[in-house]
Amino acid sequence: MFNADTVTRFTTIKTPFYYYNLALLEDTLKLASAAAGKYNYHVHYALKANTNAKVLGLMDKYGFGADCVSGGEVARAIECGFNPDKVVFAGVGKSDDEITLALDNNIFCFNVESVAELQVINELAANAGKTARIALRINPNVNANTHKYITTGLEENKFGINVWELDSVLDLLKTLPNVEFIGLHFHIGSQITDLSVFKNLCLRVNELNQHLASKRITPKIINVGGGLGINYQEPDVQAIPDFEAYFGLFNQFLEVQPGQEVHFELGRALVAQCGSLIARVLYIKNGIKTNFAIVDAGMNNLIRPALYQGIP
Ligand SMILES: *Cc1c(COP(=O)(O)O)cnc(C)c1O
Q1: From the alpha carbon of 90, which atom of ligand 1 is closest?
Q2: Number of other residues whose CB lies within 10 A of the CB of residue 293
Q3: Structural domain contains residue 139
Q4: How far apart are CA 21 and CA 61, in angstroms?
Q5: Distance CA 100, CA 259 (A)
Q6: Whose CA is nearest to atom 8 of ligand 1?
Q7: Quick count: other Cβ atoms within 10 Å of Cβ 40?
Q8: Is the CB of 48 under 6 A from ligand 1?
Q9: Number of domains within the chain
């Protein structure tokens, strides 16, 4: 968060630049980690929200793991100090090189998004003489009620394994000796501000978890992904998201079997408020429908407004 008092300090600094309020970040991480810790929940920070080294250093310091969606992010997380046994790797398009890099580093878990990927991981793990821990990313067909470009949990989306494929994938797993099935993974989208969406996710996860229990399968990990938004309308009014309500809701509605761990992958909710893009107004341009402030930053610095009307 960035306010008028801070502005005067920057009048002589070249723009544009990113400004990080690390004190606010630490306060956010302390509250998130306390709220999650109440229920022994594990939280992995989704690197794609921000990969600044100082930000990553603080995530590690406060005990967060790393959620990566590319080989580059896996390498970055490890380079910035995360223990590989706290690194998870999701994404529909993992290349052989990326999978090998993750295997070489003995990461905690691959969140597998398709049958074809499962077979490739098994083969590459066999070549490396290893067993890869995997969670199956299931597409739960739950609507996140968010912008369509950042909706990931509907059947029409490219992410995850469809529910009706689950049984055949579980059968296939028995024939793949170099992968170890440790969990179910879900991630339905981003910038979710309506918590009832997460309740719907919990109910769906419960059904699948029970279905597995009926087959005497108890995955050790239930990973419900991330997606919690921040207060986009009035960010200054609420600098830190309501983590108590968020984790409390999962505690209320998610039914876990004895011994199961619950994992989360929060990105934006942890860092969005602490970062600002500082730009200078260069020109005021009078338009036909609206007037414009032309600044010295653009889509190359912050793509969110252009891509999905993200509020800057
Ligand atoms: C982007 C992403 C997240 C984090 O999403 P946020 O909306 O930033 O919390 C979590 N898991 C996966 C697999 C992702 O791709």
Answers
A1: 13
A2: 10
A3: yes
A4: 16
A5: 30
A6: 267
A7: 8
A8: yes
A9: 1
For the chain, helix, strand, coil in percent to 5 are 40, 20, 40
Q: Please, what are the averages of pLDDT over each run of 10 residues along the chain (312 residues)?
A: 60 90 98 98 98 97 98 98 98 97 98 97 98 97 87 88 95 97 96 96 97 96 97 92 98 97 98 95 95 95 85 60
Helices (H), 229-267: 243-253
From the alpha carbon of 269, which atom of ligand 1 is closest? 9
Ligand 1 pocket residue status of 185, Cβ below 6 Å: no
- CB of 173 within 6 A of ligand 1: the answer is no
Residue with tokens 């010295």: 296
- Most informative mutation of 45, 47, 48, 246 for ligand 1 (most atoms within 8 A of CB): 48
Residues 6+ away with beta carbon under 8 Å from 72:
none
94-98 long-range CB contacts below 8 Å, 24 or more apart? 94/120, 94/121, 95/71, 96/120, 96/124, 97/71, 98/70, 98/71, 98/74
Residue type, 96: D
Cβ within 8 Å of residue 199, ≥6 positions away? 249, 253
- Domain housing 224: 21-275
Q: What's the predicted TM-score (pTM) here? A: 0.94
CA 25 vs. chain centroid, Å, equals: 17
* Predicted local distance difference test score (pLDDT) of residue 8: 62
Task: Record the tokens describing residue 61, joined without a space.
Answer: 């310091």
Residue type, 57: G
Q: Is 271 part of a structural domain of the chain? A: yes
As a whole number of angstroms, the distance between CA 265 and CA 111 comes to: 12
CATH number of the domain bearing residue 227: 3.20.20.10
